[in-house]
Design a protein that fits this description.
The protein is an alpha/beta fold. It has a single domain, classed as Alpha-Beta Complex (Spore Coat Polysaccharide Biosynthesis Protein SpsA, Chain A), CATH 3.90.550.10. Helix content is 39%, strand content 14%. A 7-stranded mixed sheet has the order 3-2-1-4-6-5-7, with helices on both faces. The longest helix has 22 residues.
């Protein structure tokens, strides 16, 4: 615990057998009280390895997608009594040792949600091996989102993030996409609900066994990103009552 806050780390896993143990080994257990692995119908030994390490392991019978996996992660963490939920990708692309900094921002009352940003690290994205076209797209989409929302976040696409219990209980994230755009949707929801967002600089690693979407999926993601911004505009202008941006039912 930190400041008497129960911290649960959730790992949305898909074919992470080669990297899961390394990821878990780097999670600071003096901060994290419990770890939940949600396996999205992997075809490798992810589930076997997770259970062999004594981790709480939830298995999807059918693949639900990255966003669908997160929905299960957050529901399980809340049911487990989490005060702070931190998402860690089990492919070891993000360094779990930075959990301490993320969680401290929330536990100290500075913010309600905290994100690790590759773009805040001086040339961190390039040095970490992010392809040049992804860096350019990241910056362009981030600028568009900041202009739409009126904020100054450094990126919207990081998979390393933490939320307070109050945030997750307030959001209607069950309406979010089951695909990769879930990450952007929940950031807009957090902002729209009036919660405070903080960022910390983090390094990333791009290597063979790290999960990464290719060019085609990246283009589809970019189009989905723009669509979500447009939906938010329509909701703001009261042209459409969008369930994505309504408060969760009490």
């Amino acid at each position: 615990m930190i400041n008497r806050r129960r911290v649960i780390a959730v790992l949305p896993a898909y074919n992470a057998a080669k990297t899961l143990a390394h990821t878990v080994a780097d999670i600071p257990r003096d901060i994290v009280d419990h770890i939940i692995v949600v396996d999205d119908a992997s075809s490798d030994d992810t589930v076997k390895i997770s259970r062999s390490m004594g981790l709480e392991t939830i298995v999807h019978a059918k693949n639900r997608g990255y966003g669908g996996n997160q929905k299960t992660c957050y529901a399980a963490a809340l049911a487990g009594g989490a005060d702070i939920v931190v998402m860690v990708h089990p492919d070891h692309q993000y360094d779990p040792r930075y959990i301490r900094q993320l969680v401290t921002l929330i536990a100290g009352g500075q913010v309600d949600a905290a994100f690790g940003s590759r773009m805040l690290m001086t040339d961190g994205a390039r040095q970490g091996g992010m392809p040049w076209w992804k860096r350019m797209a990241n910056v362009a989409l981030t600028n568009m989102a900041n202009g739409t929302l009126g904020v100054t976040l450094s990126e919207y696409h990081s998979g390393f993030r933490a939320y307070s219990r109050q945030v997750l209980q307030a959001l209607s994230f069950e309406y979010n996409s089951d695909d990769f755009i879930f990450d952007t949707e929940i950031i807009i929801q957090v902002h729209h609900a009036g919660f405070r967002i903080g960022e910390i600089p983090i390094p990333t690693r791009y290597f063979k066994d790290a999960s990464s979407i290719g060019f085609g999926r990246s283009v589809a993601y970019g189009l989905s990103f723009l669509q979500v911004l447009w939906r938010y505009r329509l909701h703001q202008w009261h042209w459409r009552r969008d369930p994505l941006f309504l408060a969760a039912a009490s």
